Amino acid sequence: MSSSSPAPSGVVTRFAPSPTGFLHIGGARTALFNWLYARHTGGKFLIRVEDTDRERSTDAAVAAIFEGLDWLGLKSDEEPIFQYSRADRHREVVQALLAKGRAYRCWMTVEELEAAREKARAEGRAIRSPWRDAPPPTDPSAPHVIRFKGPLEGETLVDDMVKGPVTFRNIELDDLVLLRNDGAPTYNLAVVVDDHDMGVTHVIRGDDHLNNAARQSLIYQAMEWDVPSFAHIPLIHGPDGAKLSKRHGAQAVGEFADMGYIPEGLRNYLARLGWGHGDDEVFNDAQAIEWFDVKDVVKAPARLDWAKLNFINSQHLRQADDARLTALTLKALTAAGADLPADAQARIASTVPQVKEGAKTILELGEHVAFALKVRPLTLEEKTAKQLSEETVARLARLREHLAAAPVWGVAELEALLKSFAESEAVGFGKFGPPLRGILTGGAQAPDLNKIMAALGREESLGRLDDALASRA
């Protein structure tokens, strides 16, 4: 393929996942940092699927990765590239390296390779093939690999945007394999060719790739191509400081979605893992794009903090559109197999505005709207039934008349009505509030009384109250 058309700023970043499993939370953060830096600089964000490992790459994994990226809102600015389809181009570059004298054919057997590896290890140097400067064998068509011919002296500098300058002694960098004996291109070769052809200017990836940066830099130099800027970001660890694993809980982006986190909440939280803007904890995409610079990413590993994730997500839930939250809550409840009334969507829609401030996730939002989804007549808890003395029933009957006559059924108006009623009865809320709450909610978790009634509406609130009063008549 020809080089990608340049971005307005010249900056081109890329996210290059291997489709051997789900989109890991660490990969999602890498994608986010690439996306943010591209947006911050007015550049382009591209996606390349590194599917050269044919045994482990699956269509299901490809679908899962794109599903995760789409859910997070991280879409490529151009059609995604699939690395395996570019194998001919990779082989073409290897031929160019052979022609330049920067690659050579190696006929070492498995046994010879192992012996050479042990000898190199004992001498504290990288492996060098005896075929590096030898004439070809009698039968040059015999199975062989093609290796990169790296320099034996000097140093390779990776001036990393996160780690700072990192120097590698060339004698310690092995002559890596470019083409396997079946003609298949290797990872380090394919990455360099693809990044060059895609016009990638900034390679932002996990710091487990730092050693690859030196080897890849040498290939760029051998081809007389511009070497991109590298930024190797630290890994994400669990709360205990150990490498993130299954025992720490969710790892896949899809799992976070299933747990009720929303994309903007997770984006905000992931941006804060290893990067920050002063003391700002909660921010929107526009602010993140304005503030983000990859050179501000810290060198130390970040720690997954569930409490902070919940806090940040809760703040974004408060700002989210109520109709969207209604749809998400209904979807979550349906997926959980909840027994829902026919008008569940309408009930949830009227309840979400009253309860969303108390929820950290969509799943919690589902718990908070449960009281509104109960179908009359509600079964009263034993505690509520015991509170319904003759005096309390009479007082609730009087309150019922006040409620029925309320000119406006709103949160503020209902709060004023309840306060006025308590004053007219010369009692505190404790004399009628607890039993009224039990009658209206059936013991389910719920907000303040005025918000409960605003969520239920006039007809449902009075109906639930009438049912309880009739049962005590």
UniProtKB/TrEMBL annotation:
Residues 124-143 are annotated as: Disordered. It is an enzyme of class 6 (ligase). Its EC number is 6.1.1.17. Residues 341-469 form the Aminoacyl-tRNA synthetase class I anticodon-binding domain. One of its GO terms (biological process) is glutamyl-tRNA aminoacylation. InterPro entries: aa-tRNA-synth_I_cd-bd (IPR045462), aa-tRNA-synth_I_codon-bd_sub2 (IPR020751), aa-tRNA-synth_I_CS (IPR001412), aa_tRNA-synth_I_cd-bd_sf (IPR008925), Glu-tRNA-ligase_bac/mito (IPR004527), Glu/Gln-tRNA-synth (IPR000924), Glu/Gln-tRNA-synth_Ib_cat-dom (IPR020058), GluQ/Sye (IPR049940). The keyword Mitochondrion does not apply. Catalyzes the attachment of glutamate to tRNA(Glu) in a two-step reaction: glutamate is first activated by ATP to form Glu-AMP and then transferred to the acceptor end of tRNA(Glu). NCBIfam families: gltX_bact. This is Glutamate--tRNA ligase.
